[in-house]
Amino acid sequence: MLPLVFRGSSDMTIKSWDWEKGRRNAVTFQGHTHYIMNVANNTKDPQTFATACLDRTVKVWNLATTYPNFTLKAHERGSVNYVEYHLDPHKP
Fold first, then answer.
1. 10 vs 19: which has the higher pLDDT
2. pTM for the whole thing?
């Protein structure tokens, strides 16, 4: 299924494209309530990715579903602009 390219958008969706199949839209993921600022690929588990959003949440997604598997409410005010996975292979 990989490599996929992800795009977070002001329409509150994440879209993925299958680069090897002519960049066709593979899946649309929905679950945020504001603009999506960042998408991070999980290098330890290529089936998951995370998003940061102006709705003050970080969401973790699985490629097998179109809805988030986990939501972290990060702030009472402000927004979440960036999320990244830890690259150390000895840490979860």
1. 10
2. 0.86
